[in-house]
Structures are given as structure tokens and as C-alpha cells.
Amino acid sequence: MSTGNETLITQAALDGELDAAGMLDFENRLAANASLAAEYGRLKTLREVMRRELVKPVAPQALRQRIAAMAAPSAAVRPAAPPWRAMAASAIVAAGLGSASTWLALRPAIEDTNPASTLIADHKRGLLSGQPFDIASSDRHTIKPWFASRFALAPRVIDLAAQGFPLAGGRIDVIAGVPAPVLVYRHKEHFISLTALPARGSPSSQALVIDGYSVRVWRAGGTEYWAISDIDPAELSNFRQSFAAAAKAAPEK
Amino acid sequence: MTKTPSDEHFAAVVMPHLDDAYALARWLTGNGTDAEDIVQDACLRALRGLDRYSGGSARAWLLAITRNTAFTWLARNRPKALVITEDIENLTPADGATPEEALIAKADAAAIERAIAALPPPFMETLVLRDINGLSYRDIAEITGVPLGTVMSRLARARGLLMAALGRPEAK
User: Fold this and answer.
1) Has the ipTM of the complex gone over 0.90?
2) Residue B92 banded pLDDT, cuts 50, 70, 90
3) Could you tell me the CA-to-CA distances from A203 to A62, A199, A200, A221, A239 in Å, in that order?
4) Chain B CB within 8 Å of residue A76 CB
5) Could you tell me where the DSSP H helices lie in B15-147?
6) Residues B41-80: pLDDT tens digits?
7) Smallest Cβ distance to B99: which of A42, A84, A85?
8) Mean pLDDT computed over A91-97
9) Mean pLDDT, chain B, integer
10) How confident is the model at residue B8 (pLDDT cuts 50, 70, 90)?
11) 3-state secondary structure A14-33
């Protein structure tokens, strides 16, 4: 049975589904077991080959239009809150964060040019679902390829564990209809969502507080970073400085 | 069709994940025309069931509906594709030489697609959700309605079969 389990653990290691302790244990066994190492090598090769050769099918434009038409918004009718939204809102009220603006922030904001409300809504959704990331890993060597397989330009993945902000994972949010990479950092009991968006408009660096969430925006190169968290604005500024300093210290190749 | 107030919301929940739904349906049926029918049908069901969407991962929710729609469609139109050997979870890969990594590395798109298409549907679905759609084990378990351990063993089997097909020395 242990060989069976080992096969499963090997898959989980490959897919970034092991936690740090599990990964450490796996790496130790990998070093000591040549046939396991060979199997892991084959699995990695298989994955690389699939990434290289397979193109993810894209929904044809005609289908997209048919479905959009099926659900075209009737602008005249402002919706009453559908049950899921009411549920999400009440969960927030229960958490002591509730206000009318919370509900507003949870509204889908697909045409909003300022991404702040969407980003905050996504951050909240992550917290409410108890799973603020699609991939859980504190290892940037796991998160980076995970993003690289999904984006033409993978975001900078910097581990700030030494500065008190360990990586918790990564996820993909949809901002204005376009998928965007989000890094999730942990700070004490709190999460920080860091979204990398293509920079546009004039450079702006700001610190905001929206609906009780600290928001920090800055730009580096062609990327606009949005950090969202419920930690203190001063601590979020610390985070930004740590990130910028680490990015400078280890310039990307 | 009459429009309901939830239509606007539908666009926000469903539209961003259309490519994922299409990719899954495309792999499960093996062709684009059938995949379009399935995705359209799945979106209709999603629209009707929008009030049952509880605010979790919208992508996993839509993929679960797409997956169920696809299997219903397959059962109706291609029942043979769903005929599965007795004890699929304990199916052992055909014995043979250890697959060669160098041969796997040389596989081209056509060979990989053939090998994936030959996988039994539960294996194929798990592999596609993981390696094409990039979902977490948790989401896959939720979508396919099986325990996490089954997701992992199906993935291991699927990859084992692919490596055997692509890395077999006489296979080219």
C-alpha cells in the first residue's frame, strides 16, 4: 500500500499540492531513491511536453456571442440581491464588517475602470470561501511555473518570509474581463492579495482605505501592483517597501 | 427567452469561464461542434440554476455543470464511450518496459492528443481538469464528486497511461 501512496504523493508534489513539510519530506525521499527520482523526472517531462504541445481550446466567438445574448443585461431593471449575494453579505455582517458599501463592493464591477472595487471583492470572496488561493504553496518555485503556464507574462514571485510576509499561494482573478495573477501573502493571521496588472494611464502611487480595507497601489516597470488587505495601512506600506526592496535586490533575468 | 434580473449577474459569473468550459467539453467529446452544443446547454442550465450558486469558485461551479451536461450528452449520443471496464480504479497499466523519458520528451501534439483521447473518461476528465484547466485537487474533487484520494489516483493512472503510450520504445 505504501508504494500506492508514494505514487499519489508524487503527483501531489508535481502539482504543488503538498504543504511545505510534505514537500520537504518528499524531496528527502527523492534524493535517496533513484527509481522515484526517475519516475518524477518522467512525470515532469510529460507535463512539460503537454505544455509545449497542447493548446488550450478557446471558445469560438460565435458561441461567446450566443451565450452573452442569452444573458444580456436588462439595464432597466436593477436587480434585487440574488440569494448568493445576500448570503455573502450576511457572512460579512456576521464578521462585523458589514455596511451598505460592503454590498456595493460585492456587486460585479466588470465595466469599472478603477479595479479597486473588483480587487477588494475578490479579496473578500477568497476570505469568505476559506480558500484565498487556487494554488497553495510557500515555494516560489512552485508558484512561478504555475503562473507561467497560464500567463504570457508571469508576475514577479518574491518570497518575503524573512520580512514577515510569507507566501501563502496564488490565484487568478478576473479584472475587467481579463484574467490577472494574484499572489497571496500571509501576515500573522491576515492575508494580503497582491495583484499585478499591466500599467496604464499616468503613474500613481497611493495608499487608500476603502470599506475598511487597506489598499496600496504602486508601479514598477510596466506593472501596476495592487495590494489589498485588512492589516493596518502602515503595515501594508511596510509590505510594499519589502517587496520593492526585494525586487530591486534580485532583478529578474 | 424572457430576461430575469439575474441575467446581468450571470454574465459576470459565467462569461469569464467560458474558455474553461469549452476546453473541458472539447476534450470530453473530441470535437468542437459537440462541445459548443454542450457549453450552450450547460450555460442555459447555469442560468436557470443561478440562485443555487452559493458564491464559491464560479469556475468550479460552471465546470461541474458543464461536466454533468457532457456526460449526459455522451450517454445519449455515444453510449459506447462510457462503457467502462469493471474495476476501473484498480486497473493496472499494461506491463512492459519502463517508459523512456527521452521518448516522452519527443512526443508531438498529435501523439499526445491520441493518447489522451484513448484514456477512459474518468481518467481523461481528471487529467484535463488538472493539466489543461489547471484546477486544484479540491476543485476537481468537488466537480467530479469523488474523494480527493480518488482524484489523485485517477491522475496517477492517467499520467501513467500517457507515459506508457508516449514513452514505449517501439511506439514510433
Assistant:
1) no
2) low
3) 38, 8, 8, 10, 20
4) no
5) 18-29, 32-48, 58-77, 101-105, 109-117, 121-127, 137-144
6) 999 888 887 777 766 788 999 999 999 999 999 888 887 7
7) A42
8) 44
9) 84
10) low
11) HCCCCCHHHHHHHHHHHHHC
Give strand ranges (E) for A67-177: 135-136, 167-175
CA distance A231 to B165: 52
B97 burial (CB, 10 Å; 0-12 / 13-18 / 19+) is: exposed
CB A202 within 8 A of CB A95: no
Taking the whole predicted model, whether its pTM rises above 0.90 is answered as: no
Kindly report the backbone phi and psi dihedral angles of residue B169, in degrees, each rounded to the nearest multiple of 5, phi listed first: -55, -40
SS (H, E, C) A81-93: CCHHHHHHHHHHH
- Does the pLDDT at position A19 exceed 50? yes
Q: Cell 479540491 identifies what position? A: B138
Instruction: Output Rg (C-alpha) for chain B, integer angstroms.
Output: 18
User: Which of these, A220, A224, A240, lies nearest to A232 by C-alpha position?
Assistant: A240
Q: Which of B101, B129, B153 to mutate to test the interface with A (most CBs of A within 10 A)?
A: B101
Would you say residue A112 has pLDDT above 50?
no
Q: Are residues A46 and B166, on separate chains, in Cβ contact within 8 Å? A: yes
Q: Is A42 helix (H, G, I), strand (E, B) or coil?
A: helix
Of B23, B43, B55, the CB nearest to A87: B55
User: Does B36 or A93 have the greater pLDDT score?
Assistant: B36
